[in-house]
Amino acid sequence: MDTSPITSWEGAEAFYTFFDGGALFWFWLAVVCCIIPIVVAYRAEKRAEERR
Predict the structure, then answer these.
(1) Would you place residue 44 in the very low, low, confident or very high pLDDT band (cuts 50, 70, 90)?
(2) How far apart are CA 16 and CA 36, in angstroms?
(3) Which of 2, 6, 7, 30 has the fewest C-beta atoms lying within 10 Å of its C-beta?
C-alpha cells in the first residue's frame, strides 16, 4: 500500500518554515484588522446603551 506521491523528505522544510518572515507579518496584520472592528463596535454599543 505504498501509493504516496511523496518519495523523499527533500524540500519538506518549506512546510515547516511557512511562518518565517513575511507570512507571519501578514498573519498578524490580518488578525489585528479583524479585531479592531470588533472593539470599535463593542465600544459604540456600550455608548449607545449608556445614552438610553
Answers:
(1) very high
(2) 30
(3) 2
CA dist., res. 28 & res. 41, Å (int): 20
The region that residue 4 occupies, defined by phi over 0 for left and psi between -120 and 50 for alpha, beta otherwise, is beta
Contact 13, 20 (CB under 8 A): no
How far is the C-alpha of 29 from the C-alpha of 12, rounded, in Å? 27
Q: How far is CA 50 from the centre of its chain?
A: 34
What is the spatial distance between Cα 17 and Cα 20, in angstroms, rounded to a whole number? Answer: 5
Handedness of CA 37, 38, 43, 46 (dihedral sign): positive
